Amino acid sequence: MDIMERVKAMTRGRVAVGPGTLYHLLDQFCESGMIEETRVEGRRRSYLLTTQGRQALAEEKQRLESQLRDYQRAFGEEDAQ
Amino acid sequence: MKHRYELPLYSFYDHTGMVEHLEKMARRGWRLDKLGGVLWRYVPIEPRRLKYALVYFPEVSGFEPTPPESHLRLQELCAQAGWVLAATAGKFQVYYNEDPDAVPLETDPGIQVDMIHRTMKRNFIPSYLLLSAVAVLQLFMQISELNENYSVWYSGKAHYFSGATWMMLPTWGSLLLIYLLELGRYFWWYHRAKKRAEEGLHTPSPRSWWIQLLAIVLLMLLVISWTTVGKMSGFIFAVLAAMLLAMVLSIGLSKLLKVVGVSAKVNQAITIGVACILSLMAVMSVSNFTIQSRRQAEKMDAVLPLRLEDLGYIAPEKAWEQVDEQHSPLVSFTRIWQRREYPQEPMEMDYIMVDVHFKPLWDVCLQDYLKNGAQTVDAAPWGARQVWQLEDQYEVVYLLCWDDRMVYMELEEAPSDAQKAIIGEKLKP
Question: Is the Cβ pair B75, A4 closer than 8 Å?
């Protein structure tokens, strides 16, 4: 599936990535070793997360979960009320 | 097909201004077709709403023989989202989309600002820093010329204000301000946009069409000041025309090398090298032609207001004369050298006629001639308003003044009263 369409589907339309932004992001992720090219068909390219990329993704997930827990500790009781 | 051409007045990073203008043109029935080196080209379409966007490529060179892989990859991604390539200009591409609700081409402001800044660092910023340095150097040279204390024959205040230099001083000064203003505005926008991008906000680029227009007007003033003052104007015009031709030929060569498939680096090296050689050849050819023409002119009889023969000297076989003049709306400056080869010894009479059109400069020019010491002498025999004899070790030097004219004169011996009357009659305005 096209990455732009997949991002939209994964976020239920909340996040849209423009082709220009995606182009630059793919270059940056490739250069930093987060993703690798797996297939080239003409101008269309396929990418896969590398081990380094999966680790970075896991760390980002942990960071966001920590922030959510902090919020629930600070405001969770008020929300419950 | 009918085309429309336009001179774009946008700073390189003014993507907001360019997009707004292109969208306005589409509503008027014109779609961007080509980004030329100087002009943009449009093709006619049905008036409609098109959404435009620009993408910057820091690593791409304008000397690439074929569209670089990066351009083609982006084109493929854009096509998937309905964005169509309108035109390419090496370091940036312009896309349009028929869907007014299409996802913007650049959705991450941080990445967009970063790409623009990286492209600017490789292109606009070094160019403008170099132009600013050239302007500073020119200003330094012009101010030095104004203050120099060389012979009055080749410099001095009257000579300065009769030439093109007085126009170049405010022009280079204004150009320097423009270059610094452009750089300042860019960095102001960049730092603000970078900060707002951290909050996920896009920052429109500032409008700068008035700066571009002012720069063009000032450059035209520079060319006018170089090409319309004095005897050198024809030479300077010919040099500028020859250098323009050299530039056009170099651009043509670069395009040919692209067609042949030469790599970007080789193309750039060859084009720049050929441009330098062609420019040098152009200047040398024009200079050589001018020198030959000038030598020819010196052999002919110049029309002089006052000759040595007017003062009673017999015209010998060998005589040499030269006239140089330059004029500006402020001052007219005419410099005359004469030399006669007599059997006993040669005789010379040289003088400078200065007509001051701009009255406030009268005292400036006068004091410049009197600065090394002078004493007033009786002006009546000369028929002038005021006369000074200047201090000089070797010659007899006078400064004759009428209402708007002063004449600096060097003689080998003190003139008689009769000769003074002839000099005054011949040189008065």
Answer: no
Using a CB-CB cut-off of 8 Å, the residues of chain A touching B77 are 4, 19-20, 22-23
**A16 chain-B contacts, CB cut-off 8 A:** 103, 107
Please, is B370 exposed, middle or buried when counting C-beta atoms within 10 Å of its C-beta (0-12, 13-18, 19+)?
A: middle
Helix (H, G, I), strand (E, B) or coil at B117: helix
Question: For residue B95, what are its two tokens?
Answer: 């896309």
What type of residue is B207?
R
Instruction: Read off the pLDDT band of B229 (50, 70, 90).
Output: low
Specify the amino acid at residue B394.
Answer: Y
pLDDT (tens digit, 9 = 90+) per residue, A14-35? 999 999 999 999 989 999 999 9
* Confidence class for position A76, pLDDT limits 50, 70, 90: confident
Rounded to 10 degrees, what is the CA torsion of B76, B77, B81, B84?
-50
Q: What is the pLDDT of residues B394-420, one digit of tens each?
A: 889 999 999 999 999 998 888 999 999
Chain B residues in contact with A43 by the CB 8 A cut-off are: 72-73, 75-76
Nearest chain B residue (CA) to A28: B111
Residues 6 to 65 of A: which have CB under 8 A from any B CB? 16-25, 42-45
The backbone torsions φ and ψ at residue B78, rounded to the nearest 5 degrees and listed phi first, read -65, -40
> What confidence category does residue B299 fall into, taking pLDDT thresholds of 50, 70 and 90?
very low
